[in-house]
Design goal:
This is Cobaltochelatase subunit CobN. InterPro entries: CobN/Mg_chltase (IPR003672). Pfam families: CobN-Mg_chel (PF02514). By secondary structure, this protein is α/β, with parallel strands linked by helices. It folds into six domains: 184 residues, Rossmann fold; 190 residues, Rossmann fold, CATH 3.40.50; 199 residues, no CATH class; 67 residues, no CATH class; 93 residues, no CATH class; 129 residues. The strands form nine sheets. The protein has an eight-stranded mixed β-sheet with strand order 33-32-31-30-27-34-35-36, with helices on both faces. A six-stranded mixed β-sheet has the order 7-6-9-8-10-11, with helices on both faces. β16 and β17 form a beta hairpin. α39 packs antiparallel against α41. The chain starts with 6 loop residues before the first strand and ends with a strand. The relative contact order is 0.07.
Length: 1204
């Protein structure tokens, strides 16, 4: 019998190994919690001070476990720091899975050297359970949970008695100088260095009032008498009240300097602060007490200094019970120097604990208050207050309080719409107020109408109608807002390093193209106290699209002037950015925990930012939430409908049905029908679109492919218009049907499900509630009230939990990715990909390049990453209790029963920023698989590195590539936008240049275009997976830059890979199509579909822009893919500019979009991308283009100035 060896690795092995070099001591304590380590150090110092002359105390060494994640670091620590240890105590926040290798190796070492070891639980539930079970083993049933399963593991690894562990656990749980001194005495007794005084933990209050106003004192309240205490009155001169909740541990080690400074700053501004200390907000008694205090005091703002989510198992948080906004305080567990040089801003653990998980409560992001300064390697010191962060956090709190207290008619608001440019060849492309899935102008009119009804001041005249609003923001003259002289005074107060970059990039402000007669002139519409504006260009017009997502490029002077004018001249009380998405959140700076030199923080200042955002885009919503401190109000996706078939396709469908009836009964008639069907399909181009190649297949097989393709087009889910914020979804039945089908999780009809009616009614109720929920959420935010949190995701993928919309969006904890369901669902795509590629290419898949996006990973729980791991023959391991990914297992080849696939990832910038753990995990997998001793023909990754050592091996094993650190996009966007390319190879080189930075392997952000090109050259397939049907590949030219750019780069590298477009919108039934076939399918089903066009015509200007945007995307794919799309250009032209009704619609509602379409068609013809079937088409286009005003003339007319 032969045992198959399964190789397991922990995720901790991704961290760098280091030798802390700490000297050994009698007593050694390790913990993830700084307050444990600080408390012990101070208690030890106090014991030494109180010791009698000649008395020798046990020596102490404390170490932060975050510095001992790597196995080698643990090994070095055991050899040196534990050399003279007489007693070792480890307190594990989160349990043994957070330090499994260390816990097991430490336990083995202590047993071998007969050193007492106590591994203690670090969280409240575990601690209470451990103490109860130690007293009475029968109580284990009362504490049954994954956390308590972990408690059993900690007890099993320990060598001290249960009674000793219980007492030590109590000392650490209650904390404070007295308990820490008792813990040290008990450890000394266990080590045989002093007697056991039989001390018991001193029970300190689990919550209480630390201070109010200027009195620094502790007033403890019993948890069962929360309403019995006297709430301090507001002091004289105070006009507002804040409650600051923080951990008791900070108080017990006298580490509250930053919190005191924040409270003092607010008090000086007239806001008194009650500071409440807590052990844990998940403790039922503590939660009840805090909720009682909040209900009694009714503060204007809540400042939360605790980490994780404060919700209990029932999803209830004590902080959200009174409808008051919550600001999440940031205190990174890093030194100032580490934070200052970090582009991410926070470590992986800080991001999860202090940002991602608190977002579940609906909290608002802030800037850092303090940093942890190390006294010695591995030994944290007190927190040092960070004054700029304290001032900005206080200012943000005061701004939200002002918004809460100010009467509606006195509030000054700004509503900003995007000016995201399409891929038009010139600036004026008709895309003002673009928002994904949203009719921004109709939504703007709806919001203004609601504001007027709520008594906001919108001027004395009648509210402009939607058409007038559109004209005012697209064609009206610009207005002078700010003089250059005032601009210089305001920018003098900004961070010097930020403005130095601005001047280096754009020169002096007088040179800015928005300056006229020494005034910055921009397009705004003033309606009383409400300012409506088009977001200014971030950069010069030629660079607009290219720089849209590029945080390395600072904004131009006009952009800065606009936001400084909002802050200091307009004195904006709240900024509403309408729709997904603008440019403010993509400005230079950190991904989270911003600094004053981060442009997003500098330009928003303390302004409350409220951001209506499409509910199915969690990645970009998270960026705006964390970088702007925004309340992200999720809005519904557009209405949907089935594409159905065009008239000529319906004729073919009927003929196929007729053939099916005749075949077998009348073979001669069947043969004639089959030939007629195929001939008609060939004439219309449908035969080639279905994947039939002349002479490759017999007629029966060709007919089967054609029939399948017609069904595929007919079943395509497309948008039926756009969503209007706060308005009911028209034709909601189709959306209900789509969600219901997705929820059924099978191909069968939902009606066959046993609880069909109940589910359907629930979906209908949630959709119906969404419109009012959106409007109410915006109203609540503008009134300074709390907006409840809700998840982001795609409704038509079965995510009913994202409904109703109108909630403050949050994302999932990235540490759990890929989720168990993602691993299961990826198995279906794995099988489909391997089978289809073998069928189509005639050989097994061995080398794959995947285009992997962050937003999709958040929506699906990491299905793309799960697919990559499965293809390599790897599965993940999870931590008990939390479900977080803790490691991986390599499946032996005999079990895998196929060769491994060498997978290369091209990751998006959002993925790079949001998923550092997944990047490290995949990099570990690559190294481990490459090191396997397996037949090289079964392990192509091992074959790629065979015989290589050192740097050569590292380069050869690089499998994660993306844009340079801090930048986004592929590099192809700029080329497509400006038209500065001649051949497809130019676009391929642009993709390579913009994607050649490696990640993982200690080479983060290093450029290696040669290795990437080599991998592309040998790839026999490239893949992009679309995870939901609320969008498609022709929604945006960006898709062409990614998918098409990847194909163009492969061609440049000498490869001819199969180009696959995956579709997991129905994850239980994934589809795989050739990329070119998917382009053709979307053109047939949506872009040239009269049903879709008619839906867009309901939305005027915005609908016309969507037509132009789709053509831009088609042009992008034609430029980058090797296939020709003449038929598709013909179809789109015939349905738009070649259709009299549609052409008139475009000219009437958005002539700029029509002109852009004319230019785009002509450009496709001139470049040879399109050979129109009729010569008259080009004549028509050229004649039409001549009738349009030149973009430069239009710009001159629009930039004429009127007085403010």
């Amino acid at each position: 019998m032969h045992l198959l060896v399964r190789e397991n690795r922990t995720i901790d092995e991704q961290d760098e190994a280091e030798d802390l070099g700490l000297p050994s001591a009698d007593l050694v304590v390790l913990s993830f919690t700084e307050s444990d380590l600080l408390g012990l150090r101070y208690a030890h110092a106090r014991l030494q001070a109180d010791a009698e002359d000649g008395q020798t105390l046990p020596s102490l060494q404390v170490t932060h476990l975050a510095r001992l994640r790597h196995p080698m670091s643990v090994d070095l620590y055991l050899e040196t720091t534990l050399e003279k240890a007489r007693c070792v105590v480890v307190r594990l926040l989160g349990g043994v899975e957070y330090w499994r290798y260390g816990a097991e190796e430490l336990a083995a070492w202590c047993r071998e050297h007969k050193v007492p070891l106590a591994l203690l639980p670090g969280d409240c539930v575990q601690t209470q359970g451990a103490q109860a079970i130690a007293r009475d083993p029968a109580a284990i049933g009362d504490y049954a949970s994954p956390a308590m399963d972990d408690e059993g593991a900690l007890a099993a690894l320990s060598t001290v008695s249960a009674e000793i562990r219980s007492r030590l656990t109590g000392f650490f749980r209650h904390g404070g100088p007295q308990n820490m001194m008792k813990a040290l005495r008990l450890m000394g007794a266990v080590a045989g260095l002093n007697d056991d005084a039989a001390d018991q933990p001193a029970d300190l209050p689990s919550w209480g009032l630390y201070r109010t106003v200027q009195a620094r004192s502790v007033v403890a309240f019993p948890a069962d008498a929360a309403k019995a205490f006297a709430v301090p009155d507001l002091p004289e001169g105070a006009t507002a009240r804040a409650v600051l909740v923080f951990y008791r541990a900070h108080l017990l080690v006298s580490d509250c300097a930053a919190l005191d400074a924040l409270a003092d700053y607010l008090a000086a501004q007239g806001c008194t602060v009650d500071l409440l200390f807590v052990t844990s907000l998940k403790d039922a008694a503590v939660a009840s007490g805090i909720a009682g205090f909040l209900h009694t005091t009714q503060p204007d703002i809540i400042l939360n200094g605790t980490v994780f989510s404060s919700k209990n198992q029932n999803g209830i948080s004590p902080l959200t019970s009174i409808g008051t906004p919550i600001l999440q305080l940031l205190q990174p567990n890093a030194t100032y120097a580490v934070w200052a040089r970090s582009p991410r801003g926070l470590s992986r653990s800080d991001l999860a604990m202090q940002v991602v998980l608190p977002e579940l409560d609906g909290s608002i992001a802030t800037l850092p208050l303090s940093f942890r300064e190390e006294v010695q390697t591995g030994q944290p010191g007190r927190r040092e207050p960070y004054l700029p962060g304290i001032e900005q956090t206080a200012a943000r709190a005061l701004a939200w309080i002002r918004l809460r207290k100010l009467p509606a008619d006195e509030k000054r608001l700004a509503i900003v719409v995007s000016d995201y440019p399409g891929a038009g060849l010139q600036q004026e492309s008709g895309h003002v107020a673009h928002a994904v899935g949203l009719d921004a102008f109709a939504s703007l009119h709806s919001i203004l109408t609601n504001l007027k009804q709520e008594n906001y001041s919108l001027g004395s005249g009648a509210l402009p109608n939607q058409k007038d609003l559109t004209k005012a923001l697209t064609d009206a003259p610009v207005q002078s807002l700010l003089s250059v002289e005032d601009y210089k005074k305001l920018t003098a107060k900004l961070d010097d390093s930020l403005m130095a970059k601005v001047h280096a990039a754009w020169g002096e402000p007088e040179q800015d193209r928005a300056v006229q007669n020494t005034q910055f002139c921009l397009r705004v519409l003033k309606l009383g106290n409400v300012m409506v504006a088009v977001q200014p260009d971030r950069a010069a017009s030629a660079e607009r699209k290219a720089l849209y997502h590029d945080p390395d490029s600072p904004p131009c002077h006009a952009y800065i002037a606009f936001y400084l004018w909002l802050q200091h001249v307009w004195r904006c009380d709240a900024l509403v950015h309408l729709g997904t998405h603008g440019t403010l959140e993509w400005l230079p700076g950190k991904a989270a925990a911003l600094s004053p030199s981060c442009a997003a923080a500098a330009l928003t200042g303390a302004m409350p930012v409220i951001y209506p955002f499409i509910v199915n885009n969690p990645g970009e919503a998270a960026a705006a939430k964390r970088r702007l401190g925004a309340v992200i109000i999720g809005h519904m996706t557009p209405p949907v409908m089935q594409a159905e078939l065009s008239a000529d396709m319906q004729v073919l469908e009927r003929l196929i049905d007729e053939y099916a009836e005749a075949d077998g009964l009348d073979p001669r008639r069947g043969a004639l029908l089959r030939k007629d069907i195929l001939n008609q399909a060939a004439r219309t181009g449908l035969l080639s679109e279905s994947g039939v190649r002349p002479g490759d297949e017999d007629e029966a097989e060709a007919l089967a492919r054609l029939d399948a393709y017609l069904c595929d087009v007919k079943d395509l889910q497309i948008r039926d218009g756009l969503h209007i914020f706060g308005k009911p979804a028209p034709k909601a039945k189709a959306l209900v049907d789509a969600i219901e089908q997705a929820c059924s999780g099978s191909e069968c009809s939902p009606e066959s499900q046993p609880d069909y009616l109940v589910k359907r009614l629930e979906i209908e109720r949630k959709i119906a509630a969404s419109s009012s929920a959106e409007a109410n959420a915006l109203g609540d935010a503008l009134a300074g009230r709390f907006v409840a949190a809700g998840p982001a995701g795609a409704p038509t993928r079965g995510r009913v939990d994202v409904l109703p919309t109108g909630r403050n969006l949050f994302t999932i904890d990235p540490r759990a990715l890929p989720t168990p369901s993602a691993m299961l669902l990826a198995a279906k795509m794995e099988k489909l990909l391997l089978t289809r590629n073998l069928q189509e290419q005639g050989e097994p898949l061995t080398h794959l390049v995947m285009d992997l996006w962050g937003a999709a990973s958040l929506r699906t729980g990491g299905e793309d990453m799960a697919l990559a791991l499965r293809l390599m023959g790897v599965t993940v391991q999870r931590a008990a209790g939390t479900g977080h990914v803790s490691g991986f297992e390599i499946i032996p080849l005999p079990v895998l029963d196929r060769s491994r696939v060498d997978v290369t990832l091209r990751i998006s910038g959002l993925f790079r920023d949001a998923f550092p753990d997944q990047i490290a995990l995949f990099d570990q997998v690559v190294s481990a698989v490459a090191a396997r001793d397996e037949p090289l023909e079964w392990n192509p990754l091992a074959a790629a590195v065979k015989g290589l050592e050192g740097e050569a091996r590292i380069r050869a094993s690089a499998r994660i590539f993306g844009a340079a650190s801090g930048t986004y996009g592929t590099g192809v966007e700029k080329s497509l936008q400006q038209g500065g390319w001649q051949t497809q190879a130019d676009l391929g080189h642009a993709w390579l240049d913009g994607s050649a930075w490696t990640y993982g392997g200690g080479r983060d952000g290093q450029q290696d275009a040669d290795t990437l090109a080599s991998l592309l050259g040998q790839a026999n397939a490239i893949l992009h997976v679309q995870d939901h049907a609320e969008t498609d590949m022709l929604e945006s030219p960006d898709n062409a830059a990614h998918e098409g750019g990847l194909a163009a780069a492969a061609a440049v590298a000498g490869g001819q890979p199969a180009q696959w477009h995956g579709d997991t919108s129905r994850p239980e039934a994934p589809k795989l199509r050739a990329t070119a076939q998917e382009v053709a399918r979307v053109v047939r089903g949506r872009l040239a579909n009269p049903r879709w066009i008619k839906g867009m015509q309901r939305h005027g200007y915005a609908g016309a822009a969507e037509l132009a945007r789709g053509l831009d995307a088609l042009h992008g794919f034609a430029a980058t893919l090797p296939e020709r799309f003449d038929q598709q250009f013909d179809l789109v032209f015939s349905a738009t500019l070649g259709n009299e009704e549609c052409d008139a619609f475009l000219q009437d509602t958005n002539p700029a979009a029509r002109a852009a379409m004319c230019r785009r068609f002509v450009d496709a013809w001139q470049r040879g991308l399109w050979h129109p079937k009729s010569n008259s088409v080009i004549h028509t286009l050229e004649t039409s283009a001549q009738k349009q005003p030149l973009a430069s003339d239009t710009a001159k007319q629009k930039n004429r100035t009127v007085a403010p």
